[in-house]
Design brief:
This is Beta-N-acetylhexosaminidase. The chain is α/β, with parallel strands linked by helices. It contains four helices and four strands. The protein has a four-stranded parallel sheet with strand order 1-2-3-4, covered by helices on one side. β2, α2 and β3 form a beta-alpha-beta unit. The mean pLDDT is 87.
């Protein structure tokens, strides 16, 4: 496949990294990094996927997602707001996949009530 998941979930520590500090905060640093990764992949003929938790509640950042990229909307719980987030992404023209989880770590038998 020519699709790469670049990760980037829970990237809240991006700002403290030397060279990544920006006056306008996490959005700018994150979006600069996202665009840089997108450019590298595009040069190699690959499409980019990324975890969307950092930008999912920021309409301005969502508008800046590089074209052709796919936002991965993840949630650990059965009541994750996938429909609400999906409606927002549809309205803004964001391509996305819903990625539900089961939160089965630290569990002997799993959490079937969460998986169904």
């Amino acid at each position: 496949t020519r699709t790469v998941n670049v990760g980037l979930d829970e990237a809240f520590d991006l700002l403290p990294a030397p060279g990544m500090r920006r006056k306008d905060g996490l959005r700018r640093a994150y979006m600069d990094h996202l665009r840089g990764l997108h450019g590298l992949l595009q040069e190699r003929g690959a499409k980019m996927q990324f975890w969307g938790d950092i930008v999912s509640s920021d309409p301005e950042a969502l508008r800046q997602i590089p074209p052709g990229s796919v936002l991965l909307e993840w949630g650990y719980e059965a009541d994750s707001p996938f429909a609400q987030k999906g409606a927002q992404y549809d309205q803004l023209g964001v391509r996305y996949y819903v990625c539900p989880g089961t939160s089965s770590w630290n569990s002997i038998m799993g959490r079937t009530e969460n998986a169904l």
